[in-house]
Every structure is written in structure tokens, then in C-alpha cells.
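ok trying this again, last paste got cut off
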Amino acid sequence: MVKKPSSILIFVVLAFLLPAAAYAIVNWYEQTFTALPVFGKEEVVNGKTMPHRIDSFKLTNQDAVTKQLGDWDGKILVADFFFTHCPSICPRLTANLKRVQEAYNHDDDVAILSFSVDPERDSSMALQKYAQRFSINTRQWQLLTGSKQAIYKLARNSFEIVATDGDGGPDDFIHSEKLVLVDRQRRIRGYYDGTDDTAIKNLIRDIKKLQHEE
């Protein structure tokens, strides 16, 4: 029995559509629910291998209020290292972080922390002016300054944004386009190029993944 042209057409369409639909479903699942890796050097504590975690800190925000890591307990963090008079990548980083903030504007479990790598010039007042210049909502996004040695140690040893050595002295300088995603357990779960649009989309997606984690 000869198949009708319509039956052949349906068979051909299904033969192409079903694999494409299956691929789309698998890809969506992987993009949405697969676990993010954990970054950072593992540490041995009392004979146990432990994942790397962000160290506690005590710094000053744009309102001259002392802030410490514990102030964001239970929150997912996005961090960057910038300086207010940066003429190159920092304005782009800030603009893209605003996209992240807008995506999670009503989520109290997501916070953004921007650490100044030039704290000698970036006083609380300078940070406040920068926040006003870029219309940053500081309810969810804090700009932080303090001891250069403390901030540089945090950048190198906790957030691990650079591989170079340094002591935070006068000749030491860190300048990075990296955004760092930190989970509620203070583990690093992703690095993103803050100047790249695709990377920002991935960051926004990955925050949602962390919200689904226990």
C-alpha cells in the first residue's frame, strides 16, 4: 500500500522535530537545574578536606557604616573589585551589574558587593557619589572601602580573582573584569567576564540555579 503524501510529510516533520524538541528539553534542563561547580583551593581542617570559603571581613560602606560578611548571612552574593575614577572597564562593569540587580530587584536573598581597589581615594563619600552617579540602589548593592591590605588579601586569598602575589602596598594594584558568584555557604560558584553580555546572561541564570539549591 502506497503511503499518502500527507502521511509522508507528517513522518518527515516528526523525524526532524522530535529530536530537536528532545535536545531543547535536555538543554533547558541542564541550563536550569544542573549544579554549578565549586571553585577555589580546598582546605584541610582537622583532617577533613573542606571546600574553599570566603573569609570574613570588616569594611566601611558608602554611608560610612561598618559592614561585615555576616551582614549577608543566607544571601547569594555577586562581587566585583573596582575603583570610582576608573575610566575603562569599571563603568561597563557597573552598568552590567545594574542589569543583574534589575533581574533580582525584588529578591532579598541576592546582594551585590563592590570592593574598591583604590581605598585611599575611595572614601565613603566618594563611593556615595559614585552610587548616585550610576543610580545604584544601595538597599541591595553595597560599595565597600577600608584597608588596602585587607581588601587585597580578600581579593587574592578569598575571591581568588588574580593569580599574582602582592602585599597591598603602594605599588600593588589589582584591576580585574571578573564578577564572582558566591553561594549561601560562602563558596565560589562562578566567575564571569563583567564586560561581556553573554557572561552577564549566564550569571543571571546561574543565580537562579543557586536559589533552587537546598
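PB: full thing came through this time. The beta strands are 43-45, 48-50, 58-61, 66-68, 76-82, 110-116, 141-145, 178-182, 188-193.
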